[in-house]
């Protein structure tokens, strides 16, 4: 029998961006920008005396909260060497920080409070691309660059839980997650027809470091966690947790078609064929050589 509860939660994201561009001699356009993203989240769980009345709250059995902040500074130089060719050179510096992480949990009538130390990470992501204009309605692109993403407050501190048909599932937080970095390269060709229909075909290759994925606990890990925390080997029927893969890669093809049906209406369709592989994963060596699950 599952005890009834209500779990109000809220998330807040504040984002500000400042961008400036200026043209220079030798057909150059320089763009600089600053971006600030602040996120906050808080989640509380209360037991209910009446499962059909969300206002019949009794005791609070869980509270999680945390904050992240990302400060990014970027620069891009657009250089038109000669008419058909344009070169883009740029880079972005990110300073990511997670702080004010807090968990309060009641398990088997025992109250436990966790506070997490603040963490930060700095990263510089370079990028370069070429655009060659084959004709007025077609062009070829080639690009290479790095991207950076810090873990979210939910991934670090709160996770989630669901109950359906008597089965309880959960995704555990992981305060030890590292930011992920991806080195991406792509070659594509684009062509438009009468200014109304455009097609794009592309090949991409990604090398990923500390990629964040959702690991599903094995039967033995599931039973061990349930017994250790709840004294019942069947308390959760499924447990997942966001973890880092040391090194991995993906590559594939993408094809897209866009059609402008009117001045205010456009439709598009695309398809992607992709293969992924775990190259190195010290925290879960059994996964090496296998595909990455649940990757878009």
Descriptive terms for the model:
single chain; 296 residues; mainly beta; Maltoporin, Chain A; 14-stranded mixed β-sheet; 2 helices; 6% helix; 71% strand; elongated
Descriptive overview:
The protein is mainly beta and 296 residues long. The chain is 6% helix and 71% strand. Strands 1, 2, 3, 4, 5, 6, 7, 8, 9, 10, 11, 12, 13 and 14 form a 14-stranded mixed β-sheet that branches. Strand 11 (180-193) and strand 12 (197-216) form a beta hairpin. The protein starts with a strand and ends in a 16-residue tail after the last strand.
Helix content: under 10%
The CATH architecture can be named as Beta Barrel
Number of strands: 14
The share of residues in extended strands comes to over 45%
Uncertain spans: none
What series of H and E elements makes up the topology? EEEEEEEEHEEEEHEE
The CATH homologous superfamily is termed TonB-dependent receptor, beta-barrel domain
User: What's the CATH first level?
Assistant: Mainly Beta
Number of domains: 1
Give the distance, in angstroms, between the N- and C-terminal Cα atoms.
Answer: 36 Å
CATH topology assignment: Maltoporin, Chain A
Number of helices: 2
Question: In brief, what are we looking at here?
Answer:
The protein has 296 residues and is mainly beta.
Show the helix and strand layout.
Elements: E1 5-6, E2 9-24, E3 28-48, E4 57-82, E5 85-107, E6 110-116, E7 119-135, E8 138-149, H1 153-158, E9 160-164, E10 167-172, E11 180-193, E12 197-216, H2 219-230, E13 238-262, E14 265-280
């Amino acid at each position: 029998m599952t005890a009834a509860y209500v779990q109000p939660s809220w998330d807040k994201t504040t984002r500000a961006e400042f961008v400036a561009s200026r043209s220079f001699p030798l057909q150059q356009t320089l763009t600089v920008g600053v971006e600030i993203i602040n996120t906050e989240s808080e989640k509380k769980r209360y037991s209910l005396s009446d499962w059909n009345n969300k206002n019949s709250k009794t005791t609070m059995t869980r509270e999680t909260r945390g904050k992240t902040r990302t400060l990014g500074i970027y620069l891009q130089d657009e250089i038109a060497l000669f008419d058909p060719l344009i070169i883009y050179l740029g880079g972005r510096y990110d300073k990511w920080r997670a702080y004010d992480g807090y968990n309060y949990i009641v398990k088997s009538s025992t109250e436990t409070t966790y506070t997490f130390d603040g963490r930060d990470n700095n990263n510089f992501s370079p990028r370069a691309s070429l655009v060659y204009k084959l004709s007025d309605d077609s062009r070829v692109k080639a690009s290479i660059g790095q991207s950076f993403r810090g873990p979210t407050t939910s991934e670090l501190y709160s996770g989630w839980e669901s109950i359906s048909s008597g089965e309880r599932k959960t995704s555990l937080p992981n305060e030890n997650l590292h930011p992920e970095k991806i080195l991406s390269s792509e070659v594509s060709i684009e062509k438009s027809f009468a200014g109304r229909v455009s097609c794009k075909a592309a090949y991409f290759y990604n090398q990923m470091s500390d990629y964040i994925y959702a690991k599903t606990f094995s039967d033995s890990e599931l039973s061990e966690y349930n017994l250790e925390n709840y004294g019942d080997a069947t308390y959760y029927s499924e447990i997942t947790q966001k973890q880092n893969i040391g090194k991995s890669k993906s590559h594939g093809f993408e094809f897209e078609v866009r059609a402008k049906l009117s001045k205010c209406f456009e439709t598009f369709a695309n398809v992607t064929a992709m293969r992924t592989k775990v190259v190195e994963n010290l925290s879960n060596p059994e996964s090496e050589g296998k595909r990455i699950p649940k990757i878009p």
